[in-house]
Amino acid sequence: MKIDNEPIYDLETRLTQDHHQSLRLWLRMLSCTVMIEAEIRTRLRNEFGITLPRFDLMAQLERHPEGLRMGELSKRMMVTGGNITGITDQLEQEKLVVRMPDLKDRRAYSVKLTPAGRRAFKRMAAVHEDWIAEMFSGMAAEQKNQLFELLSQVKTHLNTPATALDTSKEQDAS
Amino acid sequence: MKIDNEPIYDLETRLTQDHHQSLRLWLRMLSCTVMIEAEIRTRLRNEFGITLPRFDLMAQLERHPEGLRMGELSKRMMVTGGNITGITDQLEQEKLVVRMPDLKDRRAYSVKLTPAGRRAFKRMAAVHEDWIAEMFSGMAAEQKNQLFELLSQVKTHLNTPATALDTSKEQDAS
DNA sequence: TATTGTTATACTCTATAACTATA
DNA sequence: TATAGTTATAGAGTATAACAATA
Q1: Shared-domain flag, residues B134 and B54
Q2: Does the beta-carbon distance from B30 to A21 stay under 8 Å?
Q3: Of the four, B10, B15, B67, B148, which is 20 to 30 A from A9 by CA?
Q4: Average of per-residue pLDDT values in chain B
Q5: Which of B36, B25, B111, B38 is nearest to B73 (CA)?
Q6: pLDDT tens per residue across span A51-85
Q7: Same structural domain for residues A19 and A4?
Q8: Domain span including residue B12
Q9: Which residues of chain B have pLDDT under 70?
Q10: Chain B interface, best mutation among A17, A23, A146, by max B CB count within 10 A
């Protein structure tokens, strides 16, 4: 048992170690996602002429057939309102989504996938799923499960201002 | 023991399940990093007036005091050469990095942090580390370790065209 | 007054392709 | 010929702030 008086030093050391551990973890997480994201972004553009944000917006709507308001999309995608307007404009121009007026609040819209948008999304999503499966094919199923569970904890316990407001926890992982 | 003949069906089922598992994993990974990234991006901009790509470029250079060539930065950051030129231009204008001519190959440069750039990066990195530690403070150290290890495996076993060329495996996790 | 969504603006990132200089 | 890096260009994403319409 330790009797000399270095409790503060020890505490600081542990603190610093924890800081480093978290940073290492984050950098590794980031480099993994950047690698995958870069590949997916390129393929989505080359094969479907679509960008990741647009694909994401459609994915959000696919999970919410009843439609989502602009503000909700903004929160879920973590970008400001003006951007959602822009992305929605483009998708609407391509007839993939529609703005449905909200009957109860005339300031608001409900954005929905059109039938064509839903078809297009399903087609892209299937191919997208194959790409992902191929990329992760080097890992054992058991490890993927573990990783999934740990990431769920990250998502639950993450300390950010955003998580407080964020409602996107309900659904992902289709 | 199963004796009726559904091996193909079973295989397909397992395949589909694996596809779904991988997709679920990827979506969870993505939503975690997007949340953290959005927060970090905002804070870096507000507190230091810097963007994530610029911060990343400086981080690469900090790990390579001998300097990196434009092409290497391009590979490591997974963006095309023209972009590296642009980002480097801006950082050079702010006197944070310099292009040192390569004595052996007069087409090439070695990009390095200036002393001021190194100081600025260290200051930002320290604060950045605190942010990250704070965000991950809800998770136990043991879980962070597990997660780190699993992500290392992702990085190693990832099946993408990029990983073949990618040299960024040597270093991250300062 | 507060909220929903849009508009206007400025900046950055990104990819592509043509280009210069050097190897 | 091939390679290292730049330039030119076009298209998107992003944040901020001012704004209109509605609650």
Answers
A1: yes
A2: no
A3: B148
A4: 86
A5: B111
A6: 999 999 999 999 999 999 999 999 999 999 999 99
A7: yes
A8: 1-49
A9: 1-15, 161-174
A10: A23
